[in-house]
Design goal:
homodimer, Multidrug-efflux Transporter Regulator, Chain: A, Domain 2, two-stranded antiparallel sheet, 6 helices, 2 strands, elongated, DNA-binding, transcription regulation (chains A, B)
Chain lengths: 129, 129
DNA sequence: CCTTGACCTTCCAGCGACTGGAGGCCCTAT
DNA sequence: ATAGGGCCTCCAGTCGCTGGAAGGTCAAGG
């Protein structure tokens, strides 16, 4: 399979696949013409990477997960540890966004939103709120 | 006030303040020795920027908000519009993270996390789940 | 056989919002 | 005179791509 085929199969842009090779996540073979040639294993690995990325794992976390995925003697504890750390990061991010959301929603609801210049949102941002 | 003083007063790193000048968010005066000199207005503007950034507004949104903050003839509707768009973005981001969180939490809870290699997390990422 | 167009290649630059560090000037206190 | 801290500019790096330029390759149609 060429990069276009694998791109369609995985849903990942060709640019992204080349980038993953560049940073050493995958090592596709090369044909005589210099084209990348992707095996079934490459397909599995890229699918895996795509899903891991869509769950918000960083590239380095993906690298570690992929190594564990490839290592048939891994301990599931190692995988779970990475996942738990990431889950905690997601929770922290959600909490941060919810705090922002609460403050912002309060300011928005206090603002008349008409033609007058008086604006509780700006006052709040300026520290008068 | 020099940059160190304003940094303490606003809580923003000096590097960030220089960066804000570089991209035209602020225009502090300069002393004969080349040092930046910050007025009370600069202090207010930087405080405003710090709060807006901490609510997740992008730099360009901050630029627009600061312009409205400075313009005493603004309509509060313009401010509210920016804030509402941002609020919607935050909500979208929260929803995205919660979806990730749900999937990930499910995988984590299904994983024994022991010394055996069998791992529902890896299976899920591979698409077997 | 030639051309067209889709596909592939590499390399370089840019996004957002800083952050770190090098190298050097300035100011105050001892 | 010197030591220290603070200030200056400029360059490079972060993360994960993404866009574009310049050019090689391949299959189909005339």
């Amino acid at each position: 399979m060429n990069i276009g085929d694998i791109s369609k199969a995985t849903g990942l842009p060709a640019k992204t696949i080349r980038y993953y090779e560049e940073i050493g996540l995958i090592r596709p073979a090369r044909g005589a013409n210099g084209y990348r040639h992707f095996s079934e294993t490459d397909l599995h690995n890229l699918t895996f990477l795509g899903r891991a990325r869509s769950l918000g794992f960083s590239i380095e976390e993906c690298r570690a997960l992929l190594a564990l995925y490839t290592d048939k003697d891994r301990a599931s504890a190692d995988v779970k540890q990475i996942a738990r750390v990431h889950l905690a990061q997601i929770d922290a991010k959600i909490a941060e966004l919810q705090a922002m959301r609460a403050t912002l929603a309060e300011l928005v609801s206090a603002c008349a939103g008409d033609q007058r210049p008086d604006c509780p949102i700006l006052k709040g941002l300026a520290g008068e709120g």
